[in-house]
C-alpha cells in the first residue's frame, strides 16, 4: 500500500474533571476540544490519531470519564499509551472499547496494530508512582520479538517518555532508566521509522538506534525552553501543537503543526509575479 497515509500525534492532554484548571492556569479541556475540532477539519484529514501519554492529570476515573467522550468526537480512530500522570487500570477500564489495549490486569499497556500501511506498536514506559520512564526486560524481549516477526513492514513505536536526555534540567532528573537497552533493540530493526514520544511538552528530535525519536508538543501548555542545569519546573502558554506524520510509501515526513487561529494565509505572488 503506497498511498499517502497521515498520522496525527497529540500528547500531554493533562485533562481534569469538574472543569478545573490544570495547575490553576490551563484550561486543558478547552484546549483538547480545539485540538479535536482542528484535526477533524483538516484537508486532507488525518487517517488516525495517536496520543502519546499524560492523557489526564492525576489518573483518576472521573478524569478519564471526561476524556473518553472528547476523544470519541474524533472522526478517525485514535490509539493511546499512558504517561506518568496516568493510571493503567483506570485507563484500561475507561477505554475498554479500545480493543487493541491488553486486558490483563496489572500488565503494561503494550499493544500492536497491524491494519495500516505502517505497523503501530504502543509501549507503556511508565513506572507506577514515578515520573521517569523505563521498559522492563520482559517488554524489551516482547518488542524485539514483535519487530523480528515482520522486518519488512515500516513501523512506528509510540511511547510517552523520550529515551534520551533533553537538556532541560528538571525533566532530566528522572530520565529513561534503560534507554541504552532499548536503543540496542531498535538498532537491530531498521524498519523502525520513528519513536513517537511526549512528556517534554516541546518539539524535539534525536537520532536513536539508527531511527529518529520525535517528541510532540503539548495540546495546551509547553515546558519553558531553558537549558540551564538549574532550570526550574516552569511552563508557559506558547502556541499548542501537534505532529503530523506523512507516509507516502517511500518514507515518513514529520511536520510540526500548531493549534489556533493566526493571521494569514497571504499570497507570495500577485498578477505581476513575486510581491514586492
TrEMBL record:
One of its GO terms (molecular function) is metal ion binding. Keywords: Hydrolase, Iron, Metal-binding. CDD domains: MPP_GpdQ. SUPFAM superfamilies: Metallo-dependent phosphatases. Transmembrane segments: none annotated. Residues 7-203 form the Calcineurin-like phosphoesterase domain. Belongs to the cyclic nucleotide phosphodiesterase class-III family. PANTHER family: CYCLIC NUCLEOTIDE PHOSPHODIESTERASE CBUA0032-RELATED, PHOSPHOHYDROLASE. This is Phosphodiesterase.
